[in-house]
Write a structure and sequence with these properties.
367 residues; 18 strands; D-amino Acid Aminotransferase, Chain A, domain 1; 29% strand; 8-stranded antiparallel β-sheet; alpha+beta; 4-stranded parallel β-sheet; ATP-grasp domain-containing protein; Dna Ligase, domain 1
């Protein structure tokens, strides 16, 4: 069945009950991000994109990436018979959007989607299984936040996270026992909205991975693959590394075991569909290596999950790095693939202007 891919990248804001922000800058970024659906698109699929790609781009995609797709604006999204809607994540707003246009939809209950994507869900699993970070806490009032902060030393770094934050968004980094003067408004707004915040120590990341699961309505969850995450110093996503096999690297097998239990827990809640779990290996204060198997649980598509779609382009003995660049003019692909192939996976222009978010697939021989 042909599919229409919808990039509702304000998914978490929508779940939190806030209308997704639609400033000009965010609308532009979402248009650039929507092209990432090419990783999993098949011949005849459509990608909803509120902007115009260069006229020659679909032909370039077919020639270089081996798939024939079309790009349609939201006001052109009307369902022909038998088209299935595939959103970044399911929300009530997306369901209504799809129903108005007559698309086929196979969505889990929205209350379940909200529960599985909440930080409360992952926090409770970590706590009940003894898998969380030392000193991590759920806080439900400003007084509790202040009490938690008072137990910190001047050198201690820690972070407050909102109920529906993800990656490096909706969080507050703190050092020591004093809350920054501007932080109280942020804390108050999150407590008013969600009734809870999550505090945890800031740890030194060694490496991170995305465990990509498919949760069926019934039957065991399926591990589609493990993608190694590349992030910058602030925690912003910068790409995923892929291999031809779904077998997890040995270093992530314990995380996979915990992730499987989490996927089953999501299924018990009534969730089905793509499930991305971010795991992290980190260095403890005493120098030993720890594993945080449930750093984030995402009941939606993720960039790591999309990255697995590029396996189709791997040659024998090749691995891939799906690189996400900001400011294409200042970051050169040549330096990243001296012995490999580089395939652009997004256009350099959208609406006739240079993009600020650009992706490319770097293929190289496995070492």
């Amino acid at each position: 069945m042909p599919q229409l891919f919808l990039g509702n990248f304000g998914f978490e804001e929508d779940l939190a009950g806030q209308p997704p922000t639609r400033s000009v800058a965010i609308a532009r970024l979402e248009a650039e991000l929507a092209v990432c659906w090419l990783a999993v698109a098949r011949d005849g699929d459509r990608i909803c994109l509120d902007a115009d790609v260069p006229e020659a781009f679909p032909a370039e995609v077919e020639r270089q990436l081996g798939v024939s797709v079309s790009f349609v604006r939201p006001d052109e999204c009307t369902a022909d018979k038998g088209i299935e809607l595939i959103p970044w994540g399911w929300t009530e707003r997306v369901l209504q959007w799809g129903q108005r246009r007559g698309y086929g939809m196979d969505a889990p209950p929205i209350a379940t989607v909200r529960a599985v994507n909440s930080r409360r869900f992952s926090f409770e699993l970590e706590r009940s299984w003894g898998k969380g970070l030392d000193r991590a806490a759920a806080l439900t009032s400003l007084r509790e936040v202040e009490t938690f902060a008072s137990g910190m030393l001047a050198k201690d770094r820690w972070v407050l996270k909102g109920e529906f934050g993800h990656a490096a968004r909706d969080r507050l980094r703190v050092r020591g026992s004093e809350l920054p003067g501007t932080s109280r408004g942020w804390i108050a707004s999150r407590l008013k909205r969600d009734g809870i915040l999550f505090a945890e120590p800031w740890v030194e990341s060694i490496e991170e991975a995305g465990l990509q699961w498919t949760v069926p309505r019934s039957g065991p969850p399926v591990l589609e693959g493990v993608t190694t995450l590349e992030v910058d110093a602030s925690g912003q996503y910068r790409g995923s590394r892929i291999s031809a096999t779904a077998d997890p690297p040995d270093v992530w097998r314990d995380a996979v075991d915990v992730g499987r239990r989490a996927a089953l827990a999501a299924q018990v809640q009534g969730y089905f569909g793509p499930l991305g779990i971010d795991a992290m290996r980190y260095r403890r204060a005493d120098g030993t290596v720890g594993l945080r198997a449930l750093q984030d649980i995402n009941g939606r598509w993720t960039m790591g999950r999309l990255a697995l779609g590029w396996r189709r382009l791997l040659g024998p003995g090749e691995t891939g790095f799906w690189q996400h660049l900001r400011k294409v003019s200042t970051e050169s692909p040549a330096a990243d693939a001296p012995d490999g192939r580089v395939l652009p996976t997004s256009p350099t222009l959208i609406d006739g202007r240079m993009v600020s978010y650009f992706t490319q697939l770097i293929l190289s021989r496995a070492r």
